[in-house]
Design brief:
The chain is an all-beta fold. It is built from no helices and 21 strands. The model has no long low-confidence stretch (mean pLDDT about 95).
Length: about 170
């Protein structure tokens, strides 16, 4: 957990033109806490590429006081698009947005994870119980891409006290 409180479990920092795309396998991310990305924060801002391959992992009971209880993919003016396979997101929470996963691709960036054979159960937030996809720019308007590809996955029992119990796209 760095001083800016990004990524309570792992902070994949590729900001400002860097690359940080580790292979993460057979891991448990449990009871981590951060402002953004309780379990993992993928930081691809300003021309960076943060695209980890996450396989057979469990994200449970992680908390973000901002957004992305399980994972926050921050691809603003860069790229943060992990490939997530055979993973479970259970009981993660965010005080603001995206109980399980936040994808922000504004500023002409990209935050479009590929999610295969995974489960999102009982995650919660004010907006977007499971996944929030956001293309808003810092100043005004929207640009970029935040379009997850989801195949053979289950979304069940996710809740939001505001809007979008499962998704906000």
């Amino acid at each position: 957990n760095d001083s800016r409180s990004l990524g309570g479990g792992i902070f994949n920092n590729a900001a400002n033109g860097g690359t940080c795309s580790p292979t993460i396998r057979n891991c448990l991310f449990i009871n981590n806490r951060a402002v953004f990305g309780g379990g993992i924060f993928d930081h691809g801002q300003n021309g960076g590429n943060a695209n980890p391959a996450i396989t057979n992992c469990i994200f449970a009971f992680n908390t973000a006081t901002g957004g992305g209880g399980g994972i926050d993919n921050f691809g603003y003016n860069g790229n943060a698009s992990p490939i997530i396979t055979n993973s479970i997101f259970y009981g993660n929470t965010a005080t603001d947005r995206a109980g399980a996963m936040y994808c922000w691709g504004g500023g002409g960036g990209n935050a479009s994870p590929v999610i295969l054979n995974s489960v999102f159960v009982n995650n919660s937030s004010v907006d977007g119980g499971a996944i929030v996809c956001d293309r808003l720019n810092f100043s005004v308007g929207s640009s970029g891409t935040a379009t997850p590809v989801v195949r053979n996955s289950i979304f069940w029992g996710n809740t939001a006290s505001g809007t979008g119990p499962q998704f906000i796209t």
